[in-house]
Amino acid sequence: MHTKSLANELHVYTWPDATLREIAELVQDGNDDARKHNRLAISLVYIDSRGKFVVKKAGIVNTSRKSPDEDKTLAAIGFQNGDFLDVAILN
């Protein structure tokens, strides 16, 4: 595990009932590029029982209008303590 933050790394503390829309808003608060009219592709990243990283697509949130995935909660996508979220900013 690294101890220094990576470039564009954002640490957030939230709850299992947080939605992907709420996560997108937290990312927008901490990243200038995410504030523009973009889509945010959110993936769940975790380590499986074999010690391998697994990436599972969670959904896409459009920052300027409603999107079908935005009401999914972290619990609904299988997020557990210690997991990571990967957020890609798409133009």
Automatic annotation (TrEMBL):
Family as reported in the entry's similarity comment: Belongs to the SAP18 family.
MF annotations from Gene Ontology: transcription corepressor activity
Official protein name in the record: Uncharacterized protein
One Gene Ontology cellular component: nucleus
Pfam families according to UniProt: SAP18
PANTHER family named among the record's database cross-references: HISTONE DEACETYLASE COMPLEX SUBUNIT SAP18, SAP18
Lineage start: Eukaryota, Sar, Stramenopiles, Oomycota, Saprolegniomycetes
